[in-house]
Amino acid sequence: QFPFGRRLPCDIYWHGVSFHDNDIFSGQVNKFPGMTEMVRKITLSRAVRTMQYLFPLEYNFYPRSWILPDESSFFEKEIRMMKDRDPSWKPTFIVKPDGGCQGDGIYLIKDPSDIRLTGGLQSRPAVVQEYICKPLLVDKLKFDIRLYVLLKSLDPLEIYIAKDGLSRFCTEPYQEPTLKNLHQVFMHLTNYSLNIHSGNFIHSDNVNTGSKRTFSSILCRLSSRGVDVKKVWSDIISLVIKTIIALTPELKVYYQSDIPAGKPGPTCFQILGFDILLMKNLKPMLLEVNANPSMRIEHEQELSPGVFENVPSPVDEEVKVAVIRDTLRLVDPQKKKQ
């Protein structure tokens, strides 16, 4: 580590923030210019919705979404029309602040008029999405999948998907949303940073049990029930590729303005965290993309009030060590020399 920067050129620069926080003139850097902006909830939503408009059948893996406050009245009008058409339709919506992370500020509503104007939407815009009411359950719990995707280069477009990911579980048995249970975050939201505060959270010492497991352990269970897991994987791969294709045009603009062709500069690669939900019918849905997924392989445990220690997490270690190791192998500059 070079906490105060480094003057000599490096082969690979690895840093934790965004591309513009370091002056890097050579080698390879683990961030793309513009990526942090492109995967924010509103920008991602716009990019995917543009593609939904052009290719509705190809991009049906992203929930119906509206951007607030810009589309508030359009959102209300559209929901009213759909309810008039089908009075039995009882939707639930999930509101996600644009810059929020780790489940911060997310809440569920049944009606457009329930949107909270806390802090004003003007100062904190948000995306509102149709909530997926019929997720696949394991042990009666809702879970999502965090997959690690390496964008190795934009031109040519090179994408690698890690063979294993994390499955992050809710800590209360799932029930479909009703006015009574809308506020129960441990039932509806899969965010690790929320569920870790639940009394039911289980830190596991193996990859098949507990509130965080490997995705491969879930696929094993599904396979034993007769599910075609190859089809599940190919649907997920297709979702990842199409999402990156939706982001690529703007990413190229950012890239070319920061590192114009012919001018010396670094080349870029980046590990992205894709959050995906499997529906009951095993169709994968994209929840969001993370430009800076956590690579921690330990968790904090409170030994006594106010006294914490870091404890290794076997599940994180199993998945994340492989992700970093294989990324470094793939971007290894020595390979090109041979």
UniProtKB/TrEMBL annotation:
Q: Which UniProt keywords apply?
A: ATP-binding, Ligase, Nucleotide-binding
What is the source species?
Struthio camelus australis
InterPro entries (UniProt xref): TTL/TTLL_fam
Organism lineage reads as: Eukaryota, Metazoa, Chordata, Craniata, Vertebrata
Q: GO biological process annotations for this chain's record?
A: microtubule cytoskeleton organization
What is this protein identified as? Tubulin polyglutamylase TTLL11
Q: Which GO terms describe its molecular function?
A: ATP binding; tubulin binding; tubulin-glutamic acid ligase activity
Does the keyword Methyltransferase belong to this entry?
no
- Entry's Gene Ontology cellular component terms: ciliary basal body
Task: Indicate whether RNA-binding appears among the record's keywords.
Answer: no
